Amino acid sequence: MPEGLENLHVAIIMDGNGRWAKKRGMPRVLGHKAGGKTLKNIITYAAENYLKALSIFAFSAENWLRPKEEVSFLMDLLDEYIINEWSSITDNNIKFLVSGNVNLIPEKTRNSLLKLIDDTKNNTGLMLNMALSYSGQEEILECVKKIAHKVNSGELSVDDISKETIIEHLYNKELPEIDLLIRTSGEQRISNFMLWRLSYAELYFTDVLWPDFTSDEFNKAIIEYNKRVRRFGKTDEQIKS
Asked: Is 79 a catalytic residue?
């Protein structure tokens, strides 16, 4: 992996599991299973190469609308992932985080997630943020409600609300802004994912389906990112000076 990644926050929209399976005449669920193996490899690679944070769009709020059999399989797959990767996450100093409405996740799975979060809360390596039952609009809506309650109670003044106030009330306030968003399978949209933190992210789209996404493909995205000039509203001359 290219150097200089210690401060990077990379987000990935893992897309194309179903299409990967369909191309091979397999049920969609087997595409998700293959995608789970890819996820494991990418997380390991990111941790070994000192990436600061990795946010994964694992299950959106809208995904609850999928066929019940597929949703059930995905929850079982999540259970399996937590059980199989628990020791790897803890042993590799990974700090596990979840963004989303975890109250909608089945109780057994939810309890496992919360315990893993607690067990790794003091870890100082890769921050692994898994977006589950997640909606970017809902995150901002919940943030606004929390701030409004504080204003109503007199705990906070309207004039004191700042960008920092917003960040303080988002999911996992310790997560930095996203530097690079990767989306696989050729789709080119952000799909309601981490809208606040994506405000100045570089976007990278690849036709590779998620189960085929390797560490080499990940490196391609990082190399492309390193070629880009991040101006944040400034001119080229200001950046160079």
From this structure: no
